[in-house]
Amino acid sequence: MDLDLLSKYNIPTPRYTSYPPANYFHEGFTADKYYESVIASNQSNPQNISFYIHVPFCPRMCHYCGCNSYPMGKADVVSAYMEAVKKEISALLPLIDKNRKISQIHYGGGTPTAIPLHYLKEINEMFLSSFACIEHPEIAIECHPGYLNEKKWLQLIEAGFNRCSIGIQDFDEEVLKGVNRVPSLLPIEEVIALLHAHHLSVNFDFIYGLPRQTVEGFAKTISRAVALKPDRLVTFSYAHVPWVNKNQLKLERLGLPEAESKRDMYLRAGDILTASGYTPVGLDHFVLPEDSLNVALQNGILHRNFQGYCTRATTGQVYAFGVTAISQLANAYSQNIRGINEYIQLVGEGHLPVMRGYQLTTEQQLAREVITALMCNYKLNWAKLAQQMGISLETLKDGISYDNDKLKEMAADGIITYSAEEIKMTEEGKLYVRNVAAVFDPLMREEGAKRYSKPV
Ligand SMILES: C[S@@+](CC[C@H](N)C(=O)[O-])C[C@H]1O[C@@H](n2cnc3c(N)ncnc32)[C@H](O)[C@@H]1O
Ligand code: SF4
User: Fold this and answer.
1) Is 56 touching ligand 1 by the criterion CB < 6 Å?
2) Domain boundary residue, one of 265, 293, 321
3) Is 417 helix (H, G, I), strand (E, B) or coil?
4) In this predicted structure, what is the pLDDT of residue 3?
């Protein structure tokens, strides 16, 4: 690592998992503003529709969890919540242009597979009976295999899902016990055989950096996983934020692995995955070479939204339902309230349950596309991006201001190659992609980097 580059570029910069980052969301963005943004989204690109449904309940809380999840309450709370979600959907669907097509439906949580599964089928039917779909829409759900017997897996297939993201985390039952998690109810080999026999795509989620995990043990888990040939694997680095989730303090008591050991788990897993034919997408995703995410990456058109990586084909205006869910529209973000009871009450009274959001200016909308292209693909081709956005090259380039001298300096430092047509991160420069993205960020120019962490 070049230490001069490190000291020059290791300065506070946004992570750009969204643009603008969620810390810009504010309560001045109200339900009325969301309503207007939904209406405006009918005239905006991308033209497709993406739906996200948040189911926050979990039968048992994993102590490492960093998701928006709550212990599963009484059955009547779950049913009142799901009825409220259906009501929120019913209120919103008439606002969306009927000529638009669904490209993506995604259920996240929490544990959407731990509630009575008929709700999922009913909600899918609400969407699919209201809109046509693109040719290969992605209808996906996050699955906890600990609560799914064969009948329930078949029910998910019958509800119309074509992709299951299965939370494995680790195959070692001692590791799972340590974090208060139940293992898969069925042998995972049986689950994947069942899903593949019905032509579903399968993702596996893993976490490294938990108590009782070792480099050898995690390598064994990843080796068992690749033998099953899931379409995609994600190796999440355990994010330890006990000030957000107090349960994580219990993991400190069990003893977290040293930083060096955690790093080796990641590197060893990456070696096993690449030696088995998987190719990395971003830092933590591994996919088969023919997977649409890798094809998009090779073509420089990989994209992402709050649901994760996607391609331009599956990208849509994201309309999100349920507590804490974030809608991502062309000119705004809107996030729903947190409280389950408050949500049930507000929706019951006929309100859109908005907590906060952000309205993007035209320049911020363009900056979002430029920044996302750079962050996902490590390169930016201006003409290609304008074409994907359905606007002229002039509109894109004239609409966004940036400091050319800054780019020249970055090229001279060897972190990018740079021409009038294209910007590309060098291998060494990839570490500093956030710095390059920040050149196009109007908010960074106005407010500086006070609120952010350093890239390395
Ligand atoms: C909503 S959960 C998945 C669905 C289901 N609740 C389950 O646990 O299988 C999404 C994923 O986030 C990851 N995750 C949760 N907490 C995390 C943390 N603190 N650090 C890193 N990854 C985390 C886990 O891999 C998990 O599978
Ligand atoms: S990891 Fe999944 S099951 Fe565990 S608490 Fe979080 S959301 Fe719930």
Assistant:
1) no
2) 321
3) strand
4) 80
